[in-house]
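Worked example 2:
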Amino acid sequence: MRSAEQSGAGAEGFGIGQVQSDNDRRAGRAAAPFSLATRFKLSPITAAVALTSLVAASLFFVYDCARTLDDVQRELKIIGAAVVADIAEAAPDTAQLALETSVQRYATVTKASLVGEAGAITPALFRETLPAGTHGTLALEVAQTPALTGMATRGSIAFALAGLLTLLVAFRRRPAGMPDLLQRQNYQTLAGAIPMGVACWTRLGELIVCNDRYRDRLQLTGAQVRYHDAVKRLIARGNMKLIGEDEHSRVLELHGEDGSCLLIDERPLDDGAFMTLVSDITERKRTDTLLAAIREEQRHLARRYHEEKLRAEAASHAKTNFLAHLSHDIRTPLNHIIGFAELMRHQTYGPLGDARYADYVNSIKSSGEHLLASFATILDLAELEGGRKELRSEPVAVDALLDSVVQRFRGQAQRAGLTFALRQGCGAIVSGDRLGLQRMVGNIVENAIRFTPARGRITLAAFAATDGVVIEITDTGIGMDEERLASLSQPFALGDATFTRDGVGPGLGISIARAIAELSGGRLAIDSSPSLGTTVAISLPAQLANQMLEVAA
């Protein structure tokens, strides 16, 4: 747990982009007197107050003028009605004298005159005319100066009050760097829409605005909150760690004692103010930790897989070498056994005696030949898997290849009571070892004959495409289930008792065919269903067109 001094947090934030020159400039601004432009800044609220005051004073002045004129006219009408009543009975030659005598009773009237019917009265602002019967028209006037002076005085007072109110609003003192009310309301609206804790501070660390998420995160209750107090609340919850800092932002992580993690991001604003963003990244941290553990486990498993793969390859290589050496070492004594059995069968050096010895010798010879063929097959597979037996690359016509296989196994298929058919040729040419490809297809056909009951059918077909050739060998034999199909990828796999017939051998035919197909650049796939039959598909890459033309020529 660290204090605010240790974390580098002060009243002006964590020091975002601060250098010594910035501190000097800020100190100079603090010591210098405020100018009118910075101290009394005309804000939108001040302008609104000034405009409202001016409009109110103008409306008051207009109303006062209208009311004053109306009062003067009403007073003149009342006085005029009284004067007209006084002079109504006077003779025409004494009407003017009676008028002057009657007007003297009203101090506000400055001029009164009678105008005949033919006379014209000049309009005036403070003049009122009334009909005087036989005496013509009565015109009364009051002094303009008092009325105008009163209107001007009251208007001046109204405009003075409006200006004073504007000055009071414009020249009010706010804390240094504190925005006005409208700006704070805009900040509050913006902060409320942000889905994380947000707080804006002045240059001196006074809170401008913050949203509810920030208050809930720091458990703030009072309105007057300083930045230093907020930092203390954060640091008291755990350990503060600096993640990154530049002239535009400063990012810290707060690791709480309860396992939580807060991301604190501080960014500068105008006039030395700054904002603080607080977000909870506890779940993200846990996810990152879990992903890191998973990646480490994956690396560990990959390393173990690589080691086990190397061990498996080494074991397979050792097995192949062992089989090759074993096959080679056994073939020599088997040749001797077969040779001696042949001599004994022909009784080269005299009769054997008992007739049963001839049957024993024949069994020894046939068993030896069977063992020799089996070990020869094992040696071939070992050489193919070990890469010690190279296959030639020559153009091979697929139709001729299949025709030779049909000619080779037709008799065997007839003896087994099977129908052996070859579909129409495809005319494709592949590049490979002719004898190897014949052995590959022959092994599959031999298995099909062996495991197809009488009256069954075996079909050979080839299909050509632009990028390769597919050879299919289909039978209607006993078929295989998925478990048996999976075991065919391993050599020496014979399966259950159904496959343990006489003369079956070590079960390397499919393995050798698969090895030849892969060494020729192709693949071998098997599809089978019990009691329905098996289809073996061998895909081989086709030769280039010009090479095909050369072979055809």
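Residues 1-40, 494-504, 544-553 have pLDDT under 50 and may be disordered. The chain has four domains: 4-14+180-280, 46-170, 298-381, 390-552.
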